[in-house]
Amino acid sequence: MAEYSIRLANKHDLLKLAQIEKEAGKRFSGMGLVDHLLGQTLPPAKLIELIEKKQVLIACVKNVPVGFAAVSVIGKNAYLEEIDVLPEHGRQGHGARLIQLIIEWATLNELNALILSTFLDVQWNAPYYQKFGFRVLDVHEWNDDLKQKRREEKEHGMPIDKRVFMQLDLHKSI
User: Fold this and answer.
1) Cα–Cα distance between 170 and 77 in angstroms, integer?
2) Using one digit for the tens of pLDDT, what is the confidence trace for 59-71?
3) What stretch of H or E contains 135?
4) Is 4-169 assigned to CATH 1.20.58.100?
5) Cα 145–Cα 148–Cα 151 angle in degrees, nearest 5
6) Closest to 68 measured CA to CA, from 127, 23, 36, 33
7) Of all residues in the chain, what percent carry a pLDDT higher than 70?
8) Is 48 exposed, middle or buried (0-12, 13-18, 19+ CB in 10 A)?
């Protein structure tokens, strides 16, 4: 593997993060899920907020960004807002490394769980996260924050009937 590193994002990375997100989103093209959303990215103001909080990690190959993960905190949980890897750098462990570092960060910050929203039946979505120990949350397990996240997804035009929340519990009871 080429020289690989992970670093915190800074404001100068905003354009590159948008490019990575757009390129990674093309993998969904033609699936009938988000074709109408292709080309859209996380709002820059949201990314700047997370960058300032040191909650955006970038995977680099030879110091060139090829992927990123952005995480927020809702209640006592971490929430994976976005994770993307350029398709030509996929299946090389970059996403897995980013997820592992987010898990470590959330654990160190004494958060209860890492939660995300994803497509249930897309191979590199829910089935991928299950490999890390994430489980699908039943609707009755959603708190008000997750209900709000789902409303936001719907307003944004996401096909919410095809999406699930998944959770990785970080602190096991003894």
Assistant:
1) 9
2) 998 888 999 999 9
3) strand 135-136
4) no
5) 155
6) 23
7) 85
8) middle
